[in-house]
Hints:
Elements: H1 17-32, H2 49-57, E1 69-74, H3 77-98, H4 101-107, H5 118-121, E2 124-131, E3 133-136, E4 139-142, H6 146-163, E5 167-168, H7 178-183, E6 189-198, H8 214-217
Antiparallel strand pairs: 1-2, 2-6, 3-4, 5-6
Amino acid sequence: MSIEHPFIPYQPKRHSAIEMQQRAREFFLEMDERRSVRYFSDEPIPEGVLEHIIATAGTAPSGAHKQPWFFALVTNPGIKHQIRLAAEAEEKKNYDERFTPEWKEDLAPFGTDAVKAYIDVAPALIVVFKESYRVHQEEKKKNYYVNESVGIAAGMLITAIHHAGLVTLTHTPNPMKFLNEILDRPQNETPILLMPVGFPSDDCKVPKIQRKRLDEIMRVY
């Protein structure tokens, strides 16, 4: 430890064994209800909710604490529509030219296509950018473990959205550089997720799926 890089005391709140078991189980049950949604209501989101959700994502760990992420919060209807048109154009190319037959077969149970009406309907979009490198005084500076860091932040973002009582979808139109142009983001940032956020519509439906059992995704060593 040095004066230039000081440390401060840290003692997070502790819980009893019973409380820990209860909290872990209750949080799992809450998150087990999370689903990806494509049917949104245009009902407004209460003030301050999205800002706290994004702030939560910003608490994620990152390589050398460089925090290589940026979250564009889009609520302007005109900008949302621009994004929809550009996303649909890329998705049409995907379905017409880029997706393999196997890929289309795997997507079939989810009923997806190139039409992304929810981008217009959802009251907000959150676009997640990864910062491949930093620019300081016109000089490139390295970021570390960018994909891993931003992936963790995105997971925390999704968790915070669900915890607040909202729904979202991790939409990944590819390529997505149109988002840099529409949102006027610098070239050192790469968009990785386009997420509509809001309440589900009254007629919302989701595919009937089954998650893997715990013994399929975990082994004790």
